[in-house]
Design a protein that fits this description.
- This protein is mainly α.
- The protein has 4 domains: about 55 residues, no CATH class; about 180 residues, no CATH class; about 110 residues, no CATH class; about 90 residues.
- The chain is built from 20 helices and 7 strands.
- A 3-stranded antiparallel sheet has the order 5-6-7. It has a two-stranded antiparallel sheet with strand order 1-2. A two-stranded antiparallel sheet has the order 3-4.
- It is globular.
- The N terminus is likely disordered.
Length: about 550
């Protein structure tokens, strides 16, 4: 048999690739090197990388399940993959029932706008087992009718305005202006001296729904089952187990609830209905803390944003001088009983880390999913050769992922702001270097790794507003009791505040100045220059809160 007549065929995504026998010795050598997981020059060229990818059969080998690579060792899928979706679901659903879950009550009010066409309602939360049967059981337990005419269902602003279209062109123009004014009111309700009529009518139509929302916010838990969107591969839709693909389409509904509560609070105060105003603001604070339990970084950011808006509304309401000492004392007592927010370091340790490990592990063992992700979901640069990576590259990037995220979690747990940010800036600089590395798996990780500086800045910003809100409430209570402002913030503890908060951007006391007519609290509100490097886009100017009151 002549050397040139022997061919070996391998199928790569439906394409038959021949290998001639005159290179059989070289092929066997490369195959052996790839099989033991150490292709020395797998990415020296795309052709060689593709050859090793085909011959080594890297997808037939499991990624080593260990603390250094997968971090989790169980639960496992039928194909040997670690089920990160199951781990996240079991972590978040612990202790949750249909009776103590605020998401169930909100879903009844919001219907299909809460979770798309498959709305959620709940009775039980069986542990996630990684199969379709579990998904069907959960969706069956959460399914409700999507009829918009259900009693107590919230009426969206768009549907409310659509029922008030005018007949004539002139009347239609006036109607459009009224709708535009109402939209401005909902964006900045506390900036209006007089309530908007159309907005007031819409909120009046949601009176029953708002009452139920306030009651739902008093519950202990907030949990929406984690259902990942399906993937389309070779004209077939397959179940996705990627944490990255978990649907968060209820985020707009949560923002709408917060906006409605905020607008209603502003209207109530303008009508001198102070208890109802404070009840709405308290519901916003509770909603923010509840929603931070969902375990996703985007949900945590939304929760921070809702709480910041509630803090700003608190300060504006206190400036009005309409709140009495008794009402303020009751409000402060409720604020102190609120739970804490979800931990940023814990979410990075679990949600952010697990999402990437889940992604890399799935791509290592399932090339068809990797191709689908490359072509449809994430446009990876072609020079990375991502679709022909050998198994060892994914093992390397998983180890790198754990190393960097361990550093991020340790840095975020550092108590002092300056020390914490110095460490985080070093990690961010390393991430920038990795994204420019010649090692292609390091480039990929640098592209996908979260920006720790961004999240640390957001955390400090929202904590800044919570501390300023607490100080404003305490100073107002002091003024109502003594009819003068405190000369020093230390006078507020322990009667009005358990402890005096410190500026989260400097670890020093807030700057405070008082006069007979008012007082001013100032926060640094930006990154110190001595941390090195250019000022980040999240740097901002000092935050100043002026308090000048004439109470009833």
């Amino acid at each position: 048999m002549s050397t040139g007549s022997i061919k070996f065929y391998s199928r790569y995504h439906g394409i038959t690739v021949p290998y001639r026998a005159h290179s059989l010795i070289t092929i066997i050598s490369l195959w052996t090197a790839a099989a033991v997981g150490c292709p020395p020059c797998a990415m020296a060229s795309p052709a060689l990388g593709r050859m090793l990818h085909l011959m080594a059969g890297s997808e037939s080998h499991a990624v080593p399940v260990s603390y250094a690579t997968t971090r989790l060792t169980k639960p496992r899928e039928s194909d040997g993959l670690v089920s990160y979706l199951a781990a996240q679901s079991n972590l978040l659903s612990k202790g949750v029932t249909a009776d103590n879950n605020a998401a169930v009550k909100l879903c009844k009010l919001l219907g299909p706008i809460f979770c798309g066409n498959e709305s959620l309602l709940g009775q039980a939360y069986p542990p996630y087992s990684g199969n379709t049967r579990w998904q069907k059981a959960v969706w069956a337990a959460w399914h409700i009718s999507s009829r918009s005419s259900a009693p107590g269902r919230i009426v969206t602003f768009a549907s409310f305005c659509s029922g008030r279209k005018a007949v004539t062109a002139r009347a239609s123009s006036l109607s459009n202006r009224a709708i535009a004014l109402a939209r401005k009111f909902f964006r900045h309700p506390w900036a209006f001296r007089h309530p908007d009529q159309l907005a007031a009518q819409w909120i009046s139509a949601n009176k029953l729904a708002l009452a139920r929302i306030r009651r739902a916010c008093t519950l202990k838990h907030f949990y929406v089952p984690l259902i990942a969107s399906s993937l389309e591969i070779n004209d077939h839709r397959v179940r996705s187990r990627l944490l990255m693909a978990v649907s968060l389409n209820y985020l707009p509904a949560i923002r709408d609830i917060a906006d409605t509560l905020n607008a209603d609070a502003a209207l109530r105060l303008k009508r001198d209905e102070v208890p109802s105003c404070l009840r709405d603001l308290l519901a916003m604070h509770r909603l923010a803390r509840l929603f931070s339990q969902q375990g996703d970084l985007m949900c945590l950011n939304t929760a921070w944003s809702i709480d910041e808006r509630a803090c700003r509304a608190d300060i504006t309401a206190l400036r009005s001088g309409e709140i009495t000492a008794k009402q303020l004392a009751a409000y402060i007592a409720e604020i102190r009983r609120l739970g804490s927010f979800g931990s940023l370091s814990e979410m990075i340790d679990t949600n952010a880390r697990w999402s990437l490990l889940n992604f890399f592990e799935t791509c290592a063992l399932h090339p068809e999913i990797r191709t689908a992700l490359t072509n449809t979901i994430y446009p990876f640069p072609k020079h990375l050769g991502f679709d022909i990576w050998p198994r060892q590259y994914f093992i390397n990037v998983m180890r790198l992922c754990n190393s960097v995220y361990d550093q991020q979690v340790a840095a975020l747990k550092t108590p002092l702001w300056h020390t914490r940010m110095t460490a985080i800036f070093k990690i961010e600089n390393r991430r920038d270097q990795l994204s420019k590395s010649k090692r292609r798996y390091e480039q990929l990780f640098g592209m996908l790794c979260i920006n720790p500086v961004q999240w640390a800045a957001l955390q400090a910003q929202y904590r800044d507003w919570r501390d300023l809100d607490a100080l404003t409430l305490a100073i107002t209570a002091y003024h109502l009791a003594h009819e003068v402002f405190p000369n020093h913030l230390a006078q507020l503890a322990p009667k009005y505040l358990p402890a005096i908060p410190r500026d989260p951007f400097t670890d020093k006391p807030f700057q405070y100045a008082a006069s007979p007519s008012g007082c001013t609290i100032t926060s640094a509100g930006h990154f110190p220059l001595d941390l090195g490097g250019p000022q980040r886009p999240f740097s901002r100017h000092a935050t100043v809160v002026h308090i000048g009151l004439a109470h009833k």
